[in-house]
Amino acid sequence: MTRLLAGLTDRIASRRAAWVIVAAWTVLAIGLTVLAQKNPAPPEAFAFTLPASAESSKVDKLIARDFPQSKGVAATIVLYRHGGLSAADRVEAQSIAGWLRSAAAPGNVTSVVDPFSAAGPQAASLVSKDGSALLIQALVAERGGTSLDDAVSAIRRHVGTRSDGLVIRVTGPAGILADLTLLTSKILG
Q1: Residue-level pLDDT at 18
Q2: Which fold has domain 69-188?
């Protein structure tokens, strides 16, 4: 029995067997690739959907019907000053929020939430406890001929760069996506 196993392992471990195994795997990989290209799966095979009767599906339909302005990607405008925001900084924040709601802002800004228009806990959650930072949330949708990247760029141009100690940045999912798009285009040329 030992001799039989020794002979088998010697054959499997030989140089010739190694090349046979590599060739077999290569043929198998090429064959599966050709087969996969001839029989593509339909796109819906990869999509996960809940039945229409599921509670989550019902809620999703209600949200789409009752809150159409809630569609979009959040752009978070952060205002920060070391040592605390001044009254002038808060006026600047109100000005930015007002601009985002105006016709001068990108047409695909669907809603704006800031500490001045929000109430109760929502307003408190948009200002840091130490008063050094304040957030303005703007939902940006892909519509109206304006892309997400264009909208974020327009917001960044509007808030500009400052040298008076007030730091204003546009971040959140919309800001990150715009940065990734810009970075990818620079890398790919």
Answers
A1: 82
A2: Alpha-Beta Plaits (3.30.70)
